[in-house]
Specification:
Blueprint lengths: L24 E5 L7 E7 L2 E12 L12 E8 L14 H15 L10 E11 L4 H15 L8 E9 L2 E4 L3 H4 L8 E8 L5 E4 L7 H34 L1
Parallel strand pairs: 4-5
Antiparallel strand pairs: 1-2, 2-3, 3-5, 6-7, 6-8, 8-9
Bound molecules: cytidine-5'-diphosphate (CDP).
Cytidine-5'-diphosphate binds next to helix 2, helix 3 and strand 8.
Length: 243
């Protein structure tokens, strides 16, 4: 079904982007050579690094699954990633993001061949300007592929949202903080590359059903653009490995 067009009241974005325009994207794999897999994903002022370690035997023993390996994701922002220093160590926010990222990736990894093991994915944010969980997911999916972990398909993520009754793609921090009395709406989402399954969809703020449909359609398109960049970076790494 075609998405319904929403009248735009939010005429201009602070950085001059079109409503459906994502910030400049950069991606690279192999950024941490000692890891089994690693990747960097950047959109505008947000940068994420992901490192994969494993599969390795899981301790303690009672946490093991004799049928398949376990995926474990840990997300954190570096102390210097925003103007106010981030306190090191887990917080409610980092634990929530770790969990939703784990679910989003668990849908595509296939650890049947690795019983009793764990695959650890560490996501770190050296620089944040909103959308860190989606940037982290993009980096993590690439790092898993780079590590050679069997995956049924890729995962690509993007945050869409609403500011001043207008649907926008790739919400930055200024837009997230935008206040028109209603406040901005932030919708991070992730989608799989082949079957187009949504593996992450969170909603913070207010939005109508029609607007949500429009936002999801715009988000799907943006995830397609992200996927191209992820695949290009993975191919480049493959070519370098063979040289
Ligand atoms: O980063 P993401 O949009 O996935 O999650 P959020 O909780 O909605 O955070 C939005 C943004 O707020 C982050 O990307 C950071 O730029 C900023 N932030 C911050 O300045 N201090 C924090 N303790 C947490 C987030």
């Amino acid at each position: 079904m075609a998405a319904k067009k929403v009248d735009s009241l939010y005429k201009k974005r602070s950085d001059g982007r079109k409503m459906d325009e994502i910030r400049p994207i950069a991606a690279k794999v192999g950024v941490v050579p000692s890891a089994d897999g690693s990747a960097m994903f950047e959109t505008g002022g947000t940068r994420a690094i992901a490192v994969v370690r494993g599969p390795r035997v899981l301790h303690p023993q009672n946490k093991r699954n004799p049928q398949k390996g376990i995926l474990r994701v840990s997300y954190g922002m570096m102390p210097f990633s925003v103007w106010d220093r981030i306190r090191p160590g887990p917080s409610r926010r980092s634990e929530e993001i770790s969990k939703v990222s784990e679910w989003a990736l668990d849908a595509v990894v296939d650890l049947d061949a690795f019983p009793n093991t764990v695959v650890d994915v560490f996501i770190q944010i050296p620089q944040a300007d909103a959308g860190t969980r989606v940037a982290g997911l993009n980096a993590a999916a690439m790092a898993l592929a780079h590590a050679g972990i069997p995956m049924k398909e890729m995962v690509s993520a993007m945050a869409v949202g609403k500011a001043d009754k207008t649907i926008i793609v790739d919400v930055d921090k200024d837009e997230e903080d935008f206040h028109d009395g209603e406040g901005a709406t932030d919708i991070p989402m992730a989608i799989t590359s082949r079957t187009k399954k949504i593996t992450l969809l969170q909603l913070d703020g207010k939005i109508s059903t029609e607007e949500l449909k429009t936002a999801i359609e715009m988000g799907k398109k943006a995830c397609g653009d992200v996927l191209e960049v992820q695949m290009k970076a993975l191919k480049e790494a493959n070519t370098e490995d063979k040289e």
